[in-house]
Amino acid sequence: MTRQDALQTLISTSYRLKKFGELSSIGSYDMTATAPKGAAKRRAELLGFVRAESRKTLLDPRVLEAVDTLSGDETGLSPEMRAELALYRRRIDSVTGLPEKLLLRQASLKSATEQLWIEKKYTGGYAEVKAGIGEMIALQKEADAIRAGRPGRKAPAHPLDPSIDATDPGMTVAQLEPLFDTIRARTVPLLQKIAEAGRQPDRSFTKGGYDTAVQKEIALKLLAKIGYDPRYGVVGAGEHPCTYGVNRDDVRFTDHFYPDDLLQGTISAMHEGGHGMYEQNVSADYLDLLIGSGAHGGMHESSSRFWENMVGRSAAFWDYAAPLFRAAFPEKLRDVPAEAFHRAVNRVQPGPIRIYADELTYNLHIMIRFEIEKMLFDGSLPVGSLEDAWAEKCREYLGLVPEKPWEGWAQDMHWPAGMFGYFQSYTIGTLNAAQIGAAVKKALPDFDALVRAGDFAPIRGWLTENWYRHGMLYDSDTLLRRMTGEPLSADYLCGYLEEKFTGLYGVRG
């Protein structure tokens, strides 16, 4: 095969693989937001079929030959095609040698167990969900063992490492633990000081039966203002907010609005909208290439956490957003100042539910899941003992014990959906968001004034130019260094949290 033939083979194959990926995203969104509950089994089979066809395309002998041809000499390849080639090698490596039966069972079990979780979350009957999680872990470890047994490969330092690497390439348990240690060491003392101070902002105005349809209208206005283009996006209803990036022209997410929690749906919308803006601003030149989507894992979560926290929880943002809420609910909010919104959305109070957690305790939730995942994968914790392990970790990290499974291990969709080794991405994303936020503010010294005026275009423009448009052209470490000039560090986040919450609560750092 000539180099030109190899290039053309990869370009045409990327087109097909992207289409399979788009079908999978559409099917996943449909199953979560629109499909009838009775369709779960058939929808799971459909998703398994699409993924199997995608693998067949990836492992076609002509595709493998093209990858080998170009990998032998990358001289003259454009940066885009070198990145494309690297993604091919990674994808091929992830499935080579794995029995088709195993892969099909993994795909169908992920969809089926997620649907079971949706049905059983609040009603009980968790045995089937646990059984699905246990089988998925066993299948994942079986697949990891096959990969580790290939010539020139060795067993991972920790059994969870391959799952982490699948989400955050190059990241390991050993690299994550020092980051978590630093966050814990600087977060817990501050949390204790806030608790000892005994002062909490008033959140009573956020209760009292707010029309959820009106809340959604406000959230959509805010999203359109910051740059989530509604012409290319859909916001559906879902138990667990989640984004499905079909392609840059079709970015869907689910959200949940609550009558007695005025702010939660908007904060979730800012988070998911951050995912969406990343996808919508990837270069159109990459639409039919594998690199034509946002970088996976922690880098994607960086965008959501940037817009949720660095913007959406800032005082400047509420100077802009509070009037929208007052106009929509004048009887209840006429006399509520922007400062009250800002303080309410930044209330620090440990609770059992991760997606409701404040900035200060959020990463402690991730640590609970990280520690339990390590035990699930090293075999020291059977799935049947999830409740006891969860209670112990919650008591240790948050000083509380969940009363119900849906407030504990069953609250998240990730494990029922087979997403192991993903939770660390939220902390990586939070770390990145603070570090990138510092870089944006350095480049745009009037950052707060722009937000306060509702002029988000310069911020979005900087992010698009330096980050979003590149898709997966660069690995996450390279991309972060290009934006900030430094490797990943916990210092930016810890400094930001200390400055913010010592000021809000009047305590010493």
Protein described:
- The chain is mainly α and 509 residues long.
- The protein folds into 2 domains: 3-155; 174-205 and 302-505, Neurolysin, domain 3 (Orthogonal Bundle).
- It is 63% helix and 3% strand.
- The protein is built from 21 helices and 3 strands.
- A 3-stranded mixed beta sheet has the order 1-3-2, with helices on both faces.
- A hairpin with a 2-residue loop joins strand 2 (242-247) and strand 3 (250-255).
- The mean pLDDT is 94.
Structural class: mainly alpha
- What is the averaged pLDDT score? 94
Number of helices: 21
Instruction: Spell the H/E element sequence.
Output: HHHHHHHHHEEEHHHHHHHHHHHH
CA-CA gap between termini: 64 Å
Gross morphology:
globular
Query: pLDDT below 50 for ≥5 consecutive residues: which ranges?
Result: none
- The count of DSSP E runs of length 2 or more, i.e. the number of strands, is 3
Strand residue percentage: under 5%
Assembly type of the chains comes to single chain
CATH class of the largest domain: Mainly Alpha
Helix content: 55-70%
Q: What's the main sheet like? A: 3 strands, mixed
Quick description:
The protein is mainly α and 509 residues long. The protein contains 21 helices and 3 strands.
